[in-house]
Amino acid sequence: MKSIQSLIAYGIKHRLCEESDLIYIANQLADLFKVEPNQAFYDLPITLESFDDIFNPLFEKALNLGLIEEDSVHEKDAFEAKVMDLLVMRPSGMQKHFNKLYLQSPKEATDQFYAWAQASNYIKTQRMEKNIPLTLNTRYGEIKGTINLAKPEKDPKAIAAASSSKGQFPACHLCKEYVGLNQVGHPPRANHRMIQLKLNQENFFFQFSPYVYYHQHAIIIHEEHIPMKMTQDTFKRLFDFVDQFPHYFLGSNAGLPIVGGSILSHEHYQGGYADFPLDHAHVLKQISHPTLKVELIDWPLSVIRLKSKSKEAIIEMAHQIDQTWQAYSNEALDIIAYTDQRHNAITPIARKIKDEYVLMMALRNNRTSETYPEGIFHIHENNEAIKKENIGLIEVMGLGVLPGRLALELPYVEEVLKGQSPINQLSTPMQLWTESIKAKQPQEISLNWIQEEAMQTFVRGLEDCAVFPHNEEGLKAFTLFIQEATQ
Fold it and tell me: Which CATH architecture has domain 127-399+468-485?
């Protein structure tokens, strides 16, 4: 089979395997596809095809042989992962290569690890390319969005249910036991690899998200399946990481439902080789402090920025602010720290820029009410048509991961506004949203204008999450809080 020959050449070209492994891999693939090996398997072709051009004939062969039960995306992904696992270095080999590259350059090590994840198709790069990028100029600067066609939208209640891991093994999709796993009922991870590292003298694993939302979207997971918890160790881990990988940022979701991420049962962080709109946010107010730069940021959410050449000074101050925020209440602004449970938390994001450490701290509160059953400081119902999911770390930084349904709904809204299609084919939230933008539609309706309106709605949704409102009263209360928290 020419495709086996091409696949091996592909693996060697992308350094997934060594040329010395050629005969072994060829024989393993021949056995899998029930063909007789021959000399041609070991002669690498001069020209190389794309991954899909190589793999599609193998997928057809697998269907014909009954190696795959049905022609579906999940079956194809599972089989593809199994095949690519034969080419990709074992975890120990991957670790050795990473460590060797790291000694030369941390950036070279992460670049190559990312290239491996893409080449093995663990990261479905071609699917990611179908995502639709959006931008919007606002008073906060440029806010970004991406209509995500690779991963389904989740309801906040479904996210909460997914956080429960009782009786499962592995306990969640982040666990280290997913490396190489290819079992029915689980995401296919046969070609999945992680890199071991230490943060704050604790064992962690470095992996990439299969649903990359930005360049080198990394997930750093604790070795043990332990719940997310914001402590002083959190800040130590963040800055230990950016010391080791100064070209990366690293952040954490708040460890509470609604304002946290989708998996709160496993301590983990998200990072990457990318910058975000939040990194370019303007200073609204400078708070006087003798040893640190303390800044109140002009941003949709309530964000504090700390800067110092001493990471120890930032860690101590961040912990102090976090402890103060956990106990802070302001009933006039609906901020209540405790009822029968704690409600205040923070979303921290760390960077190292040359010799200066930077920490962003977004203040969050997850309390609900009869008026706002999804969350008082969550996206409000009138803005949920565009995004209903929890606002986590990525959205806090100014990148809206918007549901794939919008790729069909927004062009349909254009047809409705032009009188070409009936509005009742849209969901009720989208009907209400369409009516809300109808009054301000321009003379020339375009998809670009509708996408801008969608981004405006997303930004308003971010503003819903601000614990201190964007008015004089809110600014005054926010300033007083920071002054008290940094004393």
Answer: 2-Layer Sandwich (3.30)
